[in-house]
Each structure stands twice: as structure tokens, then as C-alpha cells.
Amino acid sequence: MGKVTVVGIGPGSYEDMTIRADTALRACDAIVGYPVYVDLVRDRYPGKELHSTPMTREAERCQLALELARSGKTVAMVCSGDSGIYGMAALVYELRGEAQEPEIQVVPGLTAACSAAAVLGAPLTHDFAVISLSDRLTPWETIEKRLDCAAAADLTIALYNPASHGRPDHLKRACDILLRRLPGERLCGIVRNIGREGQSSRILTLAELREAEVDMFCTVLIGSAVVKTVAGQLVTPRGYRNV
Amino acid sequence: MGKVTVVGIGPGSYEDMTIRADTALRACDAIVGYPVYVDLVRDRYPGKELHSTPMTREAERCQLALELARSGKTVAMVCSGDSGIYGMAALVYELRGEAQEPEIQVVPGLTAACSAAAVLGAPLTHDFAVISLSDRLTPWETIEKRLDCAAAADLTIALYNPASHGRPDHLKRACDILLRRLPGERLCGIVRNIGREGQSSRILTLAELREAEVDMFCTVLIGSAVVKTVAGQLVTPRGYRNV
């Protein structure tokens, strides 16, 4: 019996992978994943059996990984960011059910909130929330409620999946909810293609964010009440200087 | 002029560091940090100048790193977890002020929410909040408000700093706030010493969590409404099977 390692590869650059993720990819027989993520790693780990399934075929992909493991293979299932956050780890556990085999190991990776924050400066210094704007698996009303509560709690907010072809106006709708509680001048940031070729970032106000063009390669951060810019970086002070 | 790289070393094991963090530590002249974190890395990176300052002397530590960089040294300032989340990155930016030198680079790392989740199974699959129970820098009323809003929003909640010598009852007080909205049977998890010797974990209910013994080496996760156990792992289903 083989095993399935669900590997978070981070934002996409080799340097932002953990050593554990790198080791798992070196050691595996087969790499399974969404085509974009398999393409990100295939050249660095030659000689592996490669399998990919498209975006809406996640259950099929996880079943395939479990089948390969049952046939004795060591399988690395690659996910972008952290393998547990909007990733495949839960689905692999669910599809295995109450069986104890094949062995499943979850290797966490840098999630986009952390890697986007490091590009912008240090905006996640204190309490924060991570919320996806995709309503493919979550009712929009739930997303609205979470945005409203996060703003009421003065949490820094990281928005994942701020837009896609099928829902071009989700970020605008999210900003409208946040603007009920937060001022239009609140500082925010957008990072696109984190750690990949063509990485770009922008600091802007919440009012400007409402009008901004974003796509599925963007991560958005909305600052808490104390966020500010320092030498052009987005910074949430921790407060040590006042203690 | 040297530079300051603020390095998130993750939970503490070498394998959970990113390749970028490892490279920064190899390349630096001096390592600066809280004594425990300097001790975690000193043997692996011999021949470095080592500097540490105690827990309440963070500003002094950051000033020292900036001074060393001004004197031409390449400085790695080590932080546990992610260098931007309850870490030193913001303070280094603040203390440098509007100057553009020395150069500051933030290297993100695995934050405890991610590494704890991977130990417990896959409880962070969907939207979540990270909240620290330390009131050293945040008024307790703010913490209470954030806990209440996170529970109202049905976010999975990761609690950092659930207890220390000076505030042994913070977790109990936090549970009491959460129990106003969440059932006592809600599944939670505790992970202690993530990625270090003596790592342990436990899945328990919110009612049991209220009575649990925790210390500053623990990270606590509180599940959302859909959390469950699968083969002994704490899992938040993502819902693909129902789509």
C-alpha cells in the first residue's frame, strides 16, 4: 500500500515551497493535481508519473490519487498555497472515509494571505480573517454575512478568489458590504501572480478597490482601523512602541 | 549598507521552513531574534554572529537589526511562524520610518494556524479567522468583540497565545464568549509544540476546551458549523461531493 501526501506548494515559486514539500515531491512516484499546478512543478521533478484533472473534477482527482496509492504508489497531490486552505486535504480524507489506508499526510504551504502580505509590507500583523468570494461552494448570503462580521470585528481581511469569468462583480459587491462599516479611505492592497513571473502589487483605498480590475490571480487585503503606509509599504503596527 | 531580512521560520522544524528562509539564513552575517528562536536555528547555520533580546524587548531587537544592517551586515531576524503575523516585520518597517535604507525584505513562513491544521487533519478548508488571546497589546474588549463576530460569522477560528503565566484563564473566558453562540458539542482541536519534539494534539468539544489545560506552546482551532471527524481527523468538508 502506498500513500497520498497532499502538498501545499505555496504561491508558485520553488523558493516559497517548504523543505518538506520539496522532499515529498522528490520522493513520490506520481504527481496529481490541477493542470496549472502540475505544470509549475513538473520540470523540477523529472521522471514522475503525471496526472491532472480540470477545475471542476476535484473529487475525481482525489479518487485517482487514492487509487494510485492503493496500487502501491507514493503519490504527491499538489495544491497551490496551503493544501488545507481551500485545498484538497479535506476531500482526500472524506473520500477515504473511515478506512485507515492508504496513509494520508498533509504538508502545509504558504497560503496567499501570508505571501501577499509579505509583498505589500506587513499588513497582517494582528488578528485577521480569510474569506473567499467564490460562491461555487458557499451561498453568497453566507459570504456577505462573513464580510459584515469581519468588518464589525475590525479584522484585517484577506479576500481569496476576488473574481472570475463567471462572477466579474463579486469584489464590487463585497466592497459595498464593507463600505457600510468601513470608510472609503481605508487602505487596501492587491497582489497579482504572487511569486510568479509578472508579479505586481498596488496599495489603494477601499473606495478605489471597489472600482479596481481584479482576476483569479489576485489576492486582496483590506486593512484594519490602524493600517497605514510607511515608506510606501502597507503596515499594521503591532503597538510595541507604545507599550 | 547591509539589509534586514525578516524571516518566518515556521513552527520550528527545519523541514517546515521555506527554501527562501533557509537561503536567507545561510547567506546572512548575523542572526537576531528572541532567544528560543535563535536557539532553534543556531546549530544549522554555524559561523553567524548571534544576537538575542528577551520577550518584552522587541523594539530594541529590531533597532539592533537595523543598526547591524547600517554597519554593512546582512541580517536575518528570525520569527516563529510567519514573520508578518504577530511577528516583527511591521516593527522593523516602523522603526526604519520613511528612510529607504537599509533594505528590508519580509520572508513569510508557515503560520501556526496552517501547521496546526495539518496535524489535526483538514479543519481550515474554508473561511477562517486568526485571533490572539494575548491582551498585552490589544484591549480584552477588542478580543471579546472579535471572538463574538467570528462565531456569528461561522468562521473556523484559530486562537493564538491561548494562555500564559500572567493570564491562565483567557481560554476559558474566550470559550464562554463563543458558547453564547456555538453549541458545547462543537468540535475543536489543540496542538502543542507543533513540529518540535514532544508534539501532541487532541480533538475535543468546545465544552471540553473550556476546561482544558493549555499553555503558550498551544494553538487552538474551533470548528465551523460543518466540522466533523473522519477516521479520527478533524475535517471541514469543502462540499465538492455535493456539487
TrEMBL record, chains A, B:
Q: Record keywords: Transferase included?
A: yes
One BP annotation, GO: methylation
- Domain of life, per UniProt, equals Bacteria
Q: What's in the keyword line of the UniProt record?
A: Cobalamin biosynthesis, Methyltransferase, S-adenosyl-L-methionine, Transferase
To which pathway does this protein belong? Cofactor biosynthesis; adenosylcobalamin biosynthesis
Give the signal sequence positions: none
- One Pfam family, short name: TP_methylase
Keyword Methyltransferase in record = yes
Q: Enumerate the GO terms in the molecular function aspect.
A: precorrin-3B C17-methyltransferase activity
Q: What is its EC number?
A: 2.1.1.131
Tetrapyrrole methylase domain ranges (all copies): 3-209
Q: State what protein this is by name.
A: Precorrin-3B C(17)-methyltransferase
Gene, per the UniProt record:
cobJ
